[in-house]
Amino acid sequence: MNKSIFLSAVICCILFSFQAAAAQDTLHSRFGIAFGASNNIHSADFNALPGIPGGSTNFTTGDGSGLAISLLYEYPLNDRILFGVRLGYMDHSATLTAASEKADVIINGETKSGDYARSIDAVVSSFGLEPRVCIRAIKGLLLSAGLRIGLISSAKYIQRETAATGTFPDSTGRDTKSKIRNQYAGDLPNASSTLLQGVFSLGYEFPLNKKHTTFIVPEIAYTPALTNLIKDLSWKTNAVVYGVALKFSLD
Question: Could you tell me the pTM of the whole model?
Answer without folding.
Answer: 0.84
